[in-house]
Amino acid sequence: MTVPRFGYGAMQLAGPGVMGPPADRDGALAVLREAIDLGIAHIDTADAYGPRVTNELIREALHPYPDSLHVATKVGATRDEQGGWPPAREPAQLRHAIDENRKSLGLDTLDLVYLRLGNAEGPQAGSLSRAFETLVELQQQGLIRHLGVSNATAEQVSEAQAIAPIVSVQNMYNLAYRHDDELIDRLAAENVAYVPFFPLGGFSPLQSAALSAVATRLNATPISVALAWLLRRSPNILLIPGTSSVRHLRENVVGAGLSLSGEDVAELEEISGQA
User: Fold this and answer.
1) Whole-number Å distance between alpha carbons of 21 and 167
2) Which helix (H) or strand (E) is 184 found in, with range?
3) What number of CA atoms fall less than 13 Å from residue 230's CA on the CB side?
4) How far is CA 5 from CA 145, 192, 202, in A?
């Protein structure tokens, strides 16, 4: 599975708190269509976003999908009425989630499915074998093409790899939150992709004097610099920054091509030590 390094994360297309429909449905559809026009070939989603909202928007905007497009989705969590993310990793729940993703996306086979672990606070230790083996069974049935893990510890990544091949790990990582440095390097050596979520710091964007200084020096936005740093950090990193704005989407794509000098990188490397 080979995809361009710059993709798009659809989470922000849902309503506030990733619940309900977007305030501007036409605008959300326009962002998805612009992503394809810009050459983006990797869209990340989940049936829990909305729930079902982002999947249905993707289907409405892009189905039938271009042959070059890879749509990645996640299972392992659902939503409650309070907007929480309770785990849903029992075999029956996972089978239901795969069926719902296939239905809402309009796909017979899902290209890439992540098993989402942990909770909203981050990864949690514990075995993933029962849940992951369920996804492997569904893969063997032809419902899933590739497997990955999300919000996982390094030990859980290794446990999954001992059960079946994975093509990608999706964890929180950015300039200020670099807990996965060692894991990224290991996965790069194994030719496994690493997809950082919240690459710009989460719902509250990264704020850093160093980031702003480098951006000013380069006549660029802090977002552009943060994305360019991630692409430079390791060749196995794929980006999926999200936005509900066509203008911001275009800015993100342009920003990812920003060239950083050794001096720029050294200055940015100091940010993680201050976080």
Assistant:
1) 31
2) helix 181-189
3) 33
4) 19, 13, 20
SS3 at position 55: helix
The tens digit of pLDDT for each residue in 225-270 reads 999 999 999 999 999 999 999 999 999 998 888 999 999 999 999 8
Residue spans of the domains in the chain: they are: 8-203+235-241
Report pLDDT digits (tens) over 203-230.
555 778 889 999 999 999 888 999 999 9
Q: What is the pTM of this model?
A: 0.95
Q: How far apart are CA 153 and CA 169, in angstroms?
A: 10
Work out the widest C-alpha separation in the chain, in whole angstroms: 54
Whole-angstrom distance, CA of residue 218 vs CA of residue 258:
9
Residue 240's identity, in one-letter code, is I
Using CA atoms, how far apart are residues 20 and 8, in angstroms rounded to an integer? Answer: 20
Helices and strands (H and E) in the chain: how many:
10, 7
Q: Residue 272 carries which side chain, given as an amino acid letter?
A: S
Cα separation values, 7 from 99, 142, 151, 227, Å: 24, 25, 19, 12
Rounded CA gap, 214 and 212, in Å?
A: 6
Residue type at position 175: L
Letter for the amino acid at 73?
A: T
CA distances 15 to 22, 29, 188, 198, 211, Å, are 4, 14, 35, 17, 29
Residue 78 to residue 158: CA distance in whole angstroms: 25
Per CATH, the number for 8-203+235-241 is 3.20.20.100
What are the catalytic residues? 49
For residue 222, which of 172, 262, 264 has the smallest C-alpha distance? 264
